Amino acid sequence: MASSVPLGHPSFLEDAQPVSASVTKAPGHAHTYAGTQPYTAARSLRADEIPRLLQDFRAGARNAMKAGFDGIQLHASNGYLIDQFCGTALTSGATPTEGRSKTGFACCAK
Fold first, then answer.
1. Which secondary-structure segment (H or E) carries 60?
2. How many domains does the chain have?
3. Global confidence as pTM
4. pLDDT > 70: what percent of the chain?
5. Which of 2, 15, 75, 107 might form a disulfide with 19, Cβ 3.0–4.6 angstroms?
């Protein structure tokens, strides 16, 4: 699964490009295993990628519960991927998934 800006960096993603609600680049530098490196530009998450991402969230929750946890907590604020879709700061509407405020992850609660 890809990670989101501002926290994603290719060094944590098997050199894959981070994804975001919009094409964007976080300011500053990421703290990586190779030292401090500038963030790289994230690509906009495609609409056809959302179901897989939701499936990954569901699978993670199921795995945690199988391991004995009572539940999970999703980080959905402060620039994490879900927050990017629910907010307006990163949803410009320029691509099919941008501007999908809340709709992209509405089925997370299901």
1. helix 50-66
2. 1
3. 0.61
4. 71
5. 2
29-32 and 35-38 strand pairing = antiparallel
pLDDT tens for 25-66 read: 878 888 888 889 888 888 888 889 889 888 988 999 999 999
Q: How far is CA 79 from the centre of its chain?
A: 9
Q: Does the residue 3 lie in any domain?
A: no
Residue found under tokens 């530098």: 29
What is the distance between the alpha carbons of residues 27 and 34, in angstroms, rounded to a whole number?
A: 19
The whole-angstrom separation of Cα 87 and Cα 47 is 17
| Residues taking part in catalysis | 80
Tell whether the model's pLDDT for residue 2 goes beyond 60. no
Specify the pairing of strand 19-20 against strand 29-32: unpaired
Our CA angle for 84, 90, 92, nearest 5°, is: 125
